[in-house]
Amino acid sequence: SQLDNTTFITQWNWNFGDGSNSVLQNPVHTFSAAGSKTVKLTAIASNGCSSPEITKSINIAYLNVMTINDTTILPNTAIRLKTAWQSNTTGSINFNWTPVTGLSDPTVSGPMASIQNDMTYIVRAATSEGCVANDTVNLKIFKGSGVFVPTGFTPNNDGKNDVLRPVYFDITKIHFFRIYNRWGQLVFSSTKPGEGW
Fold it and tell me: 146 Cβ partners below 8 Å, 6+ apart?
């Protein structure tokens, strides 16, 4: 604060401790990382006098939010949209899910969702200090699985249909895919989806 009425401050010198500076009286600065920061300020008066350096330690808050992975569900079957978060704040965290369609409560960290059609939900978390974080989850309605196997293939190395392999729809694991010759002898076996003969 100024101690006399004959001089006035002509320059402010802020050092934010991260390589950034400002000469504004009331600067706004965004730190690229959270944690403890040391901010320094000096001022120069109209008579050329410089103030002593003022040092202030501040804590920059952070918030990360993560919800469940994208998943496939049955229509009208409830699933909990669990949400985890990390933050260095001590205040409360508020949640807001959009859209609200099919949700039990769009203002809690883990609402139940029951939908009939594919849906993309966004969760927005905000701390009382003003930190905001978002995450997205895509829910896909299971419409049935299937295995489609071509009735023929042309193993002539022309790059077209050279390999006989099944196409799996909404199947992530197979126990086996086997090919037998006309005499019942096993000629190929695999447990890896996408592998063919």
Answer: 168, 169, 170, 171
